[in-house]
Amino acid sequence: MSREARLERLLEFLQRSPTPWHAVYAMAERLDAAGFRRLDESQPWELSPGERIYATRNDSSIVAMQLPHDRLEALRMIGAHTDSPGLRLKPNAAQAAAGWLQLGVELYGGVLLAPWFDRDLGLAGRIHVRHPDGRIEGVLLHVDRPVAIIPSLAIHLDREVNNGRPINAQTQMPPVFLQGGEGADLQRLLLEWLEAEHGLVGAEILDFELALHDVQPPALVGVKRELLASARLDNLLSCFIGLEALLESDGSQAVALVANDHEEVGSASACGAQGPFLGDVLRRVNAQLGEPGEEGFIRLIQASRMISCDNAHALHPNFTDRHDAAHGPGLNGGPVIKVNANQRYATNSATSALFRDLCREAGVPVQTFVTRADMGCGSTIGPITATELGVPTLDVGVPQWAMHSIRETAGSHDVEHLTRALIAFANRARLG
User: Fold this and answer.
1) In terms of domains, do 33 and 80 share one?
2) Residue 135, burial from CB neighbour count under 10 angstroms (0-12, 13-18, 19+)
3) Gap between the Cα atoms of 212 and 16, Å rounded
4) For the chain, what percentages of helix, strand and coil (3-state, to nearest 5) are there?
5) In a domain, 225, yes or no
6) N or C: which end of the chain has fewer CB within 10 A?
7) Owning domain of residue 210
8) Which residues have C-beta within 8 Å of that of residue 202, sequence separation ≥ 6?
9) What's the CATH code of the domain at 181?
10) How many domains does the chain have?
11) Torsion sign across C-alpha atoms 48, 49, 53, 58
């Protein structure tokens, strides 16, 4: 599989995935095309050795598995998350000021606000409608043209703006949406878009979960196209790489890919990493293909390994002092092992050793990140999944700049680096 073809698939995936619901839909399409069978959590499961399956929850989290051809004894698990920080619409979003209809927003996750100003914004998410026959359905909306913008205040009206002016999310972030639209019906506009996108006629909107997104397409940047710039690289990049590794694995081993929603807000939800989704799926699979019972499940988990993939902070050339001098990962320098003595990352020397050996086997470079001792450290799904399941876990990620910005940057070569390492993991016969 060529690097160029993989990058083209990645750009298409990023463009099609403005929300977690769209990301899971796009991933499910590729799984369907590859022969995976979709399972309904509310129905009985009948599984066969060697089968390829997947299940979704809330339409925003997904677990996909290559089942073993023999007895289930160990799993190679790859973790990621589908959500990204951004601006979500409030339920009663329409608000008017100075002759403009604006959209009331709330922050989702730790948003880097300044880059949102003066961007061409589209609208996307999930809308639940009632059809004329009374049927209720959730449908996806993706308005991928500019329909809103958050204009900056001119420097002439705020001479101190470049001296660190704080941004008030309540008063300064609502985008302008429609001139002279003080009395406009937002739901009518949404219905018009749904009719154009899905052909829905006569439907009634019951509720929605919508987000603003940058309509600028992802791009390869740099003289040698060595950079990848896009919205939502944290963490759709890991979702894509994990899916590529699963689809390109040779099928000889049991492999699971889990992509959870709600990591950016703590993971405490029914479909988040702190919730029961992954455990529910694994218990049902183990009951049919492994050693049944709680002891059998514990033995399975302890024989398995999890590589949690979430992007890492790359060394920024303008802010080199923000990294520990010995732990500044470079773009295109290979995947980054993330270490924290206070367990903000789940890495330990045993799981790190396994990953270093995988990188050696795959012929890719590997790096390490530890935050400065005088700075706080973020976290990810790795420690949460390890806590919930007890599975030995490693936290790794592709290095990137501008994490939590509306447009982030990573190294285009690192996509191939981490994919190859994860394929080696998926095909690995011995994990211990």
Assistant:
1) yes
2) exposed
3) 14
4) 30, 25, 40
5) no
6) C
7) 87-214
8) 131, 132
9) 2.30.250.10
10) 2
11) positive
d(CA 122, CA 217) in angstroms, rounded, equals 12
Q: Name residues whose C-beta falls within 8 Å of residue 79's C-beta, 6 or more positions apart in sequence.
A: 242, 257, 258, 259, 260, 273, 306, 307, 308, 309, 381, 382, 385
Q: Are 271 and 295 within one domain?
A: yes
CATH code where residue 306 lies = 3.40.630.10
Do residue 57 and residue 109 come from a single domain?
A: no
Separation of alpha carbons 370 and 390, rounded Å: 23
- The answer to whether residues 271 and 337 belong to one domain is yes
Written as one letter, the residue type at 207 is D
Q: Provide the token pair at 228.
A: 């990848």
Q: Residues 406, 116: contact at Cβ < 8 Å?
A: yes
Render each residue's pLDDT in the chain as its tens digit; 432 residues: 588 999 999 999 999 999 999 999 999 999 999 999 999 999 999 999 999 999 999 999 999 999 999 999 999 999 999 999 999 999 999 999 999 999 999 999 999 999 999 999 999 999 999 999 999 999 999 999 999 999 999 999 999 899 988 999 999 999 999 998 777 789 999 999 999 999 998 999 999 999 999 999 999 999 999 999 999 999 999 999 999 999 999 999 999 999 999 999 999 999 999 999 999 999 999 999 999 999 999 999 999 999 999 999 999 999 999 999 999 999 999 999 999 999 999 999 999 999 999 999 999 999 999 999 999 888 899 999 999 999 999 999 999 999 999 999 999 999 999 999 999 999 999 997
Question: Residues for the chain: how many in total?
Answer: 432
Enter the pTM of the model: 0.96
Q: How many CB atoms lie within 10 A of CB 304?
A: 22
- Considering the domain architecture, whether residues 268 and 296 belong to the same structural domain is answered as yes
Quote the CA–CA distance of 18 and 399 in Å, as a whole number.
21
Helix (H) or strand (E) holding 330: none
Q: Which residues pair with 149 in a beta bridge?
A: 176
